[in-house]
Write a structure and sequence with these properties.
This protein is α+β, with helices and mostly antiparallel strands and 349 residues long. The chain has 2 domains: 88 residues; 238 residues, Bira Bifunctional Protein, Domain 2 (BirA Bifunctional Protein, domain 2, 2-Layer Sandwich). The protein has 11 helices and 10 strands. The strands form 2 sheets. Strands 1, 4, 5, 6, 7, 8, 9 and 10 form an 8-stranded mixed β-sheet that branches. A two-stranded antiparallel sheet has the order 2-3. Strand 6 and strand 7 form a beta hairpin. The structure holds adenosine-5'-[phenylalaninyl-phosphate] (FA5).
Amino acid sequence: MADTVALKESFSVALNSVTNMEELEKIRVEYLGKKGFITELMQEMKSLTPEEKKTFGQAVNVLKNEVNDAITAKREELKQKEIELENSRMPLFDLSMPPVLDRGSYHPITLVQRQCEEVFRSMGFAIEDYSEIVTDYECFEALNIPKNHPARDMQDTYYLDNGQLLKSHTSAAQNAIYKKYKDALINEGKPIKAIFPGRCFRNEATDACHENTFFQMEGVMVDKNISISNLIFFMKTMLSEVFQKDIKVRLRPGFFPFVEPGFELDISCLICGGEGCPSCKHSGWLELCPCGMIHPEVLKAGGIDPEEYTGFAFGLGLTRLAMMKYGVKDIRDLNSGSLKVLSQFTDDK
Ligand code: FA5
């Protein structure tokens, strides 16, 4: 008497190796066809006793049904795969759909960032990108802010479990920039001139001029004999190019451990014309671009000899610049994703 269990096993192995409809049909014929293994088993019954016929007949029937069901399921599976393959070859868009959306627009921060990049590129600055997750060394220690230094309280920082942190200011990239360009400075006399825009994160209570996620654009220049007048020249050029009109600016002393001397560069609020409003915390002035001469310790950490080289650095508040440039009264509107706000900038490319 043939072994139905062994036949079922050989069928399973054969079915598993099937990859298309042709192979499936071949197996169907091999097992269920007129001369197939299962049909042959049925014929063996003739020579059995009535008792044997009963048990064997039942086993063959069960096997036949299982084989049938398995072939039907496999057929469905193959059909589904064919449909998926066909879909993957189709274009992802439907050319016959009527246009339902208006032309999109650049985000005001992108617009203002591009303008700044253009201004600095034309003055020979390289544009660099940097990660949003940085080390404590990059964000603080390399910037002359050791562990437990009170200056860390100036920036409410989001720390990660692994000790890294979300970049609280673009200054976090300074050390890497110095290390990247110092050889060309020292060996070939090429000044370091770079800007590096990026997203920053602080655990801030938000208001009309503070967000917890905002953009800054850092800039550095290092060479022999760089002075505060170079810094003032670049700041003035950047502001007059971006605003294309005279704006009132004030420079006052400011403390940042990574510059000496340090300054706060404020602009007269363009929302209220300097009268005072929520956008400028009713002071008439908006802190826009702190800056200063790079601290000798920071140059040293970047592998640059402060006895030989000097430089300036600035940290422009790009999000605030976008507010001023486009008259956005509340900084939170810029992260709101509201098309009402953002679509106003469509034509300004
Ligand atoms: C800094 O972040 C320094 N790293 C800047 C710097 C660089 C100083 C190089 C000296 C040399 P501050 O925390 O003030 O400084 O931020 C710089 C600018 O970013 C501010 O003037 C403001 O325009 C913008 N800014 C800061 N915090 C926020 C915030 N929560 N929301 C929106 N803009 C902000």
